[in-house]
Amino acid sequence: MYEIVLFSGGVYKFDLLVEHVEDVGGLLVQENRLHISRGTSFLSEEIRVMIIAPTNEISGIKSIAKDIKGEIEEIEIEKPLKDNLISALELYGVMCKTRDWLDLSTIQELSKFHYEKELVELKDNQDHYNAFEECLELMISLELIEKRESERELEYRVLKKVDEL
Question: Any idea which fold 79-164 has?
Answer without folding.
Answer: Arc Repressor Mutant, subunit A (1.10.10)
